[in-house]
Amino acid sequence: MMYKVQVRFLFHSDIKIKIPEIYDDSVFDRLFGILEDVNEKYNSYTKNSYIDKINKNNGHFVKVNDEIINILSKIIHLSNVIGEEYDITIMPLIRLWGFYKQNPILPSLEEIKKVRKLVGYKKIIIDKKKKRVKIEKNQEIITGSFIKAYAIEKMAQEMRKIGIKDAIVNAGGSSIIAIDEWGIIAENPEEEREVLRNEKGMPIKITQKEYAGAGEYNDLFEIKIKDRSYSTSNQKNTYLLINNEKYGYIISPKTGFPAQNKQVGVITESAFFGDIISTGLYNQTSKKFYEIMEKLSEEMEISGFLIDKDGEIFYFNMEKYF
């Protein structure tokens, strides 16, 4: 089958949509229009979005719609399952570490301890009856870890309504949705060879070359997914350099420090859930990774892997996708 492709820049990423060539180009406008609508209404970086209003009116209730209540309710549920290592009120810590400064300075332990008190998704109050939301004084929500995936999942639903049965959407590499079966390369976050481990933590004697197919040094393995999303979190290209040390942007709400793992990949039906989960798992040990994946598997079909700070891979229910 022949395909056509369009790429547009949204959510600070190149969003690439690939669909069969039989569809008119106007379909792209329809699909990207959904992303633009989500960006306008729910992105914390968009002025006058619902989240922007909630942030600017911290300490006070803000009128919202049913969709934002649904989004926040699902996020809070997943945050509880993940063990509070995923927190959308992490923004004060991100600012403290200097991700919006030209010359960041390593924060002191006292500063981290003070700012951590502002972080806590459990302090978000959702009044479903009156359709309003409130965060505590000086709290701030950041949507970067979920809003892009939420938007492309909503767009994929529109694809199915149109009747598109064969397509792939790549949202900057961090979130990919495949309609019908597509092969995806899981890239190595660093130029190292990792040790692949099973659910019991035991190393598997198989080379990276065998998993990568072509054996390219920077590929981990190839997976094939159908009607699923692949979400990945790593800090290869997004970090601060302070005193010649790299500090990634995924910060643990519990410690206040950037996580040290190298990569997490998650396969789920929901791209929205996948992005949240991959971010939350980034702060976990291999033991907690397995515990949380087991809990999540009781609610949804889920597979994934974690590459720890030493470059070792731990995977959960991934065999069927290789």
3D structure, described in words:
The protein has 322 residues and is an alpha+beta fold. 31% of the residues lie in helices and 27% in strands. Helix 6 runs antiparallel to helix 8 (271-281). The longest helix is centred in the N-terminal third of the chain and has 17 residues, at 26-42. It is globular. It starts with a strand and ends in a 6-residue tail after the last strand.
Low-confidence stretches: 192-217
Shape estimate: globular
SSE string, helices as H and strands as E: EEHHEHHHEEHEEEHEEEEHHEE
For the sheet with most strands, the description reads: 9 strands, mixed
Distance, first to last CA:
24 Å
Determine the fraction of residues in helical runs and give it as a percent range.
25-40%
Across the major sheet, the strand order is: 1-2-6-7-9-12-13-14-8
